[in-house]
Amino acid sequence: MGRVDTEEVPTRSRANRWLWMAVGWIAVALGTLGIVVPGLPTTGFFVLAASCFARSSPRFERWVLNLPHVGPLVRDYRAGLGMPRKAKIWAVSMILVAVTASAVFAIEHPIARAVVVGLGLIGAWVVLWRIPTSRG
After folding, report:
1. DSSP, res 38
2. C-beta separation of 70 from 49 below 8 A
3. What is the pLDDT of residues 60-95, one digit of tens each?
4. In 3-state terms, what secondary structure has residue 9?
5. Whether 74 contacts 43, CB under 8 Å
6. DSSP-H helix ranges across 57-136
7. Which residues pair with 134 in a beta bridge?
């Protein structure tokens, strides 16, 4: 079993491969949901899915890397190229909209509201300052 352009060599243990595969498919489901739910990240879940599939199924890893809209973003992230400026602006905007809507309309408990706002600010900070900006 050879290495197929992956970050990781697939796990030899059958149980571990199934676990990585399950986590990968959960990440795909959440990433797909993130396409229509504001504030839920799409690319991050697909990056996680590709990483899980690299440990369990090179075939599904290639599938994620070749998806039409998400695949190039995952490949760029893996290569250390970061996110395009427009994607960063869109991501931070959606985080702020979702956090604000949640804090104002959906969450009544002050501690829960503070946690959501804090996590949203951390997410925005990560996107803006920890993820490199590509020229795309």
Report:
1. T
2. no
3. 999 999 999 999 989 988 998 888 888 889 889 988
4. coil
5. yes
6. 58-65, 71-78, 85-101, 110-125
7. 84
Nearest-angstrom CA–CA distance, 84 and 47: 15
Pairing status of strand 83-84 against strand 133-134: parallel
CA distance 115 to 72: 33
In terms of Cα–Cα distance, which of 51, 60, 49 is closest to 24? 49
CA distances from 99 to 21, 42, 44, 67, 113 (A): 31, 16, 18, 29, 9
For the chain, how long is the longest CA-to-CA vector?
54
Apex 67 CA angle, 90 and 7, nearest 5: 95
Token couple for 134: 């590509």
The C-alpha angle 65, 66, 70, rounded to 5 degrees, equals 70
Tell me the C-alpha distance between 63 and 67, whole Å: 6
The answer to whether 53 and 61 are in contact (CB under 8 A) is yes
User: Per residue in 18-68, pLDDT tens?
Assistant: 999 999 999 999 999 988 887 677 888 999 999 999 999 999 999 999 999
What residue type is 4 in one-letter code?
Answer: V
